[in-house]
């Protein structure tokens, strides 16, 4: 018999059973334990599980929050919506129950390894139904699937059957690493980009330190993080210090923080997840006053590319921001979609109109180019 449940802690689900649904994932059970312990403000965690008898057959993380409809809007559109929010506080905010995670790029919904692919769509439908019931219990009308891979037909078919609307979300940037050296990578880029990066490499660079414990520099890390966040056009969550320390502690050898120093001053850091197959750039923050002088973003980029080459890591996953630079740096892009439905038919109809104006590709030409590539 198939049953579905929603839990408030991932500890209610056995570690091995959860990880069996996500073979090889870096954002696995341990990652979500660290996220849960970090207690990120304004988010309530939920974990959806489908059982066949007593056997776990499908799972997905989920969360509850108050969502601003202009979260993925930037540029002129963002300035307009901020003015609207000042004139009419709360007009752009809705209670949201979403399958996925605010600290993962794609919707992590997995099925157990013994489940045939032919059953996956039916199990995703069970997860959607469980989410709807759970959202109703919390009195939340808006249900969404955050950042489902665009090429995942099972998610698309399941959401369509449930009457969900869809719109493009922020694409994921990926850099395959088939290169034998950094110089070979540079040779794969356009002439002007290649020339620019080689010029940057000839200039003096910061000292690079790889760390798995950052307790002694945590105040400086948070200063850089807060400053970087304030400059960002797109932001969804605000990470506490416990997120960074917790990830490093919980994931052990699969997480590292790369520090960039000028003399005795910390000028940038990069939180990374990694295994033998991939390197995931989770967060990069830098001192804007030093960034141009030391080319901190591009130094960090080439440091990660070089690490992948030296350790035979085939894929560099590099986030959902900075699309103009990533187009120049040779990235490929995976499309993501948001599916959503409000149980109130009037609000659901209104969202059909609103989504035309809040599509992320409407306000950022580079993002539009990345989305079109997918």
UniProtKB/TrEMBL annotation:
Which InterPro entries would you find in this protein's record?
Acyl_CoA_acyltransferase, FemAB-like
Q: Please give one Pfam family short name.
A: FemAB_like
Keyword Transferase in the entry? The reply is: yes
Coiled-coil annotated spans: none
Keywords linked to the UniProt accession: Transferase
> What's a single GO MF annotation on this record?
transferase activity
* Bilayer-spanning residue ranges: none
Q: What is this protein called?
A: GNAT family N-acetyltransferase
